[in-house]
Automatic annotation (TrEMBL):
Name of the molecule in the record: Thiamine biosynthesis protein ThiS
Originating species: Cedecea lapagei
NCBIfam families, alphabetized: thiS
PANTHER family associated with the record: SULFUR CARRIER PROTEIN THIS
Length: 66
């Protein structure tokens, strides 16, 4: 199935979870947040959240500053 990850087209298999996708892309860093179709998904749901055809995923990295 086709999805978008950080504005790039990507193919993944049906039944892929957010956690599996991040592991596949080596993007599972601490301080990361994910939005699927413009909705933030809590980290505790990543392992059970199944991706669907056409989903748009954005990965955000927390940045400290002041």
């Amino acid at each position: 199935m086709r999805i978008q990850f950080n504005d790039e087209p990507l193919e993944c298999t049906e039944g892929t979870t957010l956690s599996a996708l991040l592991a596949q892309l080596e993007q599972g860093k601490a301080g990361a947040a994910l939005a699927v179709n413009q909705t933030i998904i809590p980290r505790e749901q990543w392992s059970s959240y199944l991706l669907c055809e056409g989903d748009t995923i954005l990965l955000f990295q927390a940045i400290a500053g002041g």
